[in-house]
Write a structure and sequence with these properties.
By secondary structure, this protein is α/β, with parallel strands linked by helices. The protein has a single domain, classed as Metal-dependent hydrolases (TIM Barrel, Alpha-Beta Barrel), CATH 3.20.20.140. The protein is about 30% helix and about 25% strand. The chain contains 11 helices and 17 strands. The strands form 3 sheets. Strands 1, 2, 3, 4, 5, 15, 16 and 17 form an 8-stranded mixed sheet that branches. The longest helix has 18 residues. The radius of gyration is 21 Å and the shape is globular. The two termini are about 30 Å apart.
């Protein structure tokens, strides 16, 4: 009997200790050991990637799959194919845009039944906190959701209304009882306006950075009062960095993420009428983008996740006031971030920390997020120097709508392994529920 089922060698393996030559040895779906690159090992299959980088599978904790109910927008089959093709081996599905939303145990069961047998990567679930469902939070937690999402401003769908600050406080008090996690869409509705016209500048003006900052300050104060863990979703405005840094200095359990589109795109680049770029909160200026990178490098922002929120093309009408707001990028997050990060002097270990280790730690997902013994053998062979021209029609997303269409990104995923087995998108899915 051979000692290992699989050995994957790379001169650029990205481990928790940094980038180095290594041989990752796999047994029974887990990483059994990390050996020197040239170590003679007894394995059923021994693969040498040469100079291709070997990364842990990415962990994307912000994905709107939309099934059941809006499966024509996206679904578990298409979303998890896109994830695997983009080097993402774990996703956590958001509770809204599906029907019913995941706001009680029955809705969670409905979502799991819809997803069963369709997932090419491993899948976890967030619950939702909406007005009137306080009594459902603990049962959802006991059913295994990784935390609860709430909005402070309208979500865009009637079945997932926002919480008032007092309702957020009540929910945090309940969640603190079992040391759960609240993840917050933080925009203060009192500072949001109706766009005065159909153009991007008019849309951007309607959702000022001050709205994000004020909401973040409210959430931080509620975290201070309740002792609960809170996480700020998709930070787009650098105005938020100062209060977030202060909360960290004060020892509050407050963290924050941003997204590839805020780090790689800019308002100045948005083509007229191209609502593939519309999202809430919005993509802001180049100067703001530079400050977000500083916040990421300094640890004020800890995670980079997709906020993959797709829709059919007929909802992306060329009117920024009326079009659906959401960016489709699940398959493209790694090359998009690597393209920009490498220009700014960051290495693959930084990208792995932001897109794998930290999201796994945020949600508390065991055995994910790093090339380390005992972890699931979720692996990615990544060609960091290859050109990656984006054709929306060639992506696995259900609808060919993405702001990256026509761009040439840097870096291509060559192979993805899930628990030690190559992901074959033409074979029956092997993903499990977490």
């Amino acid at each position: 009997m051979t000692e290992y089922d699989l050995v994957v060698r790379s001169r650029r393996a990205v481990t928790p200790d940094g980038e180095r030559p290594a041989a990752v040895a796999v047994r029974d779906g887990r990483i059994a050991a990390i050996h020197p690159h040239d170590a003679p090992l007894d394995a059923s299959l021994d693969t040498d990637l040469g100079d291709l980088a070997l990364l842990p599978g990415l962990v994307d904790t912000h994905v709107h799959v939309n099934e059941p109910g809006r499966t024509h927008w996206e679904g578990f089959a298409s979303a998890t194919r896109a994830a695997a093709a983009g080097g993402v081996t774990t996703i956590v599905d958001m509770p809204l845009n599906s029907l019913p939303p995941t706001v009680d145990p029955g809705a969670l069961t409905a979502k799991q039944e819809a997803a069963r047998g369709q997932c090419h990567v491993d899948v976890g679930f967030w619950g939702g906190a909406i007005p009137g469902n306080l009594a459902e939070l603990r049962p959802l937690h006991e059913r295994g959701v990784y935390g609860f999402k709430c909005f402070l401003s309208p979500s865009g769908v009637e079945e997932f209304p926002p919480l008032t600050p007092d309702e957020v406080r009540q929910a945090l008090e309940v969640i603190a009882e079992f040391d759960g996690l609240m993840v917050v869409h933080a925009e203060d509705p009192s500072l949001l306006l109706d766009p005065t016209g159909p153009t991007y500048p008019e849309f951007l003006e309607s959702r000022p950075g001050a709205s994000e900052r004020r909401a973040v300050e409210q959430v931080i104060e509620l975290a201070r009062q309740t002792g609960a863990r809170v996480h700020i979703l998709h930070v787009s405005s650098a105005d938020c960095l100062e209060p977030l840094a202060a909360a960290r200095r004060d020892g509050l359990r407050v963290s924050a993420e941003t997204c590839p589109h805020y780090l790689t795109l800019a308002a100045e680049q948005v083509p007229e009428g191209d609502t593939a770029f519309k999202c809430c909160p919005p993509i802001r200026s180049e100067a703001n983008r530079d400050l977000l990178w500083e916040g990421l490098a300094g640890g004020v922002l800890s995670c980079v996740v997709s906020d993959h929120s797709p829709s059919p093309s007929d909802l992306k009408i060329p009117d920024f006031a009326a079009a659906w707001g959401g960016i489709a990028s699940l398959q493209l997050g790694l090359p998009a971030i690597w393209t920009e990060a490498s220009k700014r002097g960051h290495g693959l270990p930084d990208v792995v920390r932001w897109m794998s280790a930290n999201p796994a730690a945020l949600a508390g997902i065991p055995r994910k997020g790093g090339l380390a013994p005992g972890n699931d053998a979720d692996l990615v062979a990544f060609d960091p120097d290859a050109a990656n021209p984006v054709d929306a029609a060639g992506l696995h997303h259900k609808n060919p709508v993405t702001p990256y269409h026509g761009r040439v990104l840097k870096g291509v995923v060559r192979t993805t392994w899930l628990r030690g087995t190559t992901v074959d998108l033409t074979a029956p899915p092997r993903g499990t529920f977490l």
